[in-house]
Amino acid sequence: MSFLGDSIVIFVSQVFFFIGAWIFFVKQLFKDYEVRHVMIQLLFCITLTLSCTMFELIIFEILEMLDSSSRFFYWYFMLYFLLFILIVVNPLYLSFCCISNVPYVKSEYIKHATILVWIAFLVIFWKIGDPFPILNTKQGLLSIEQLVSRIGVIGVTVMALLSGFGAVNYPYTSMRYFMREVNISDVHNIEKKLRQAMDMILVKKKRIAIAKKQMANNSLDSVKQSIWGMIASATSRKQENITQLKLEVAGLEELSRQLFLEAHEARNMLERIEWSKTWKGLYFNFLGYIFSVYCLWKIFICTVNIIFDRVGKKDPVTRVIEIAIHWMGFNFDVNFWSQQVSFYLVGCIVVTSIRGLLLTLTKFFNKISSSKSSTIIVLIFAQLMGMYFVSSVLLLRMNMPPQYRKIITQVLGDLQFNFYHRWFDVIFLVSALSSILTLFLAHKQPVRDNMESE
């Protein structure tokens, strides 16, 4: 009876997760496009639902909700179901969509080509584990350890790349310190230059049209007068003038594009400066300073971990409780507060991970998608999203007290957890330093200085 009740709780929560994923897909991710393939929408929503359910099971583990046997069963069920989606269903359908969009592939060969591409994916997926110390000869070919270990490499890499870039980019985009000083007169001057360039383009294109018309008339007169030498020289001079005008127009068009981008950037900077003066802007500016400190601290810790080959053995909750008891002399119920603090800490990590990934997917989708490529991009995002969340569970284990890690360790099996934490530190450090260098190089001089230099 308890298993039936636990199943109802899991089922109801999955319904809510699925509805939320469906609304996000239609209202946010695919709001500018028509949903033509329901299967793609189902795959995306099912992947997000299963990922949220795994996080829910972590919360249930901390709160000791549901029966332990029920949690163990649904851990296995959800993880195997998600692995089936990530390794079989989604890659197979993604291969089918890619092959279907190739114009020279005949319809009768699409299925065969799809199977070949999927087999190639499986080979590449399996070979990913060769360079890394994640293999164990005792594990079976299709064991959950073999599958999760390879997904973990890809997912942890994606997590670390996004985390490193986000830790650097958020302070850069939210802090008043990094905003360039631009006033309305700068914007007006740039827009004035843009209008002048557009007027010059229009004048020169008119001259080209007039020159072409004169050439046509001269060619017609040359046939009637039969004076070949004079006509050839006149025509060559006109042709030379047109070529020169076209080169000048091309240069002005490039200049106008640069001026347009500069004017757009200046307008955006003005809006950001005005926004930074509001209460919301001041709040995000304060958060930017916090994230700057976090980014520097994280870079320092990752460097130390890499150099000394160090991996944290204790979760943050246990460490804080030990400091409070041994160093500050507090006396309280360790088990109670360990559960409460772990619940809120893991809950915050889960919510921020899901929200951050969905916002990032939305931004990328809006920038790179089109009416033809949108379905393929959604499938790629669903694949990366599933791997991301499986890896999140793998890394989240270290943020939980030892008594709550048992079921995750039992389900995921004999994995090299220390390797994934070290791999995350390496990729995070590379991503953060690369982002700092890229933003530093991309940070041009203020618009006003550029104008004065001209």
The share of residues in helices is over 70%
Largest sheet descriptor: none
What's the average pLDDT?
75
Q: SSE string, helix = H, strand = E?
A: HHHHHHHHHHHHHH
Described by its quaternary structure, the protein is single chain
How far apart, in Å, are the first and last alpha carbons?
80 Å
Based on CA atoms alone, the radius of gyration comes out at 30 Å
Shape label: globular
| Unreliable spans | 230-240, 445-454
Number of β-strand runs = 0
Detail the topology: elements first, then pairings:
Layout: H1 2-29, H2 38-63, H3 68-100, H4 110-127, H5 144-174, H6 184-225, H7 228-276, H8 279-307, H9 316-327, H10 334-368, H11 374-396, H12 402-412, H13 417-442, H14 447-453
Polypeptide structure, described:
The protein has 14 helices and no strands. It is mainly α and 454 residues long. Helix 2 packs antiparallel against helix 10 and helix 5 crosses helix 8. It is globular.
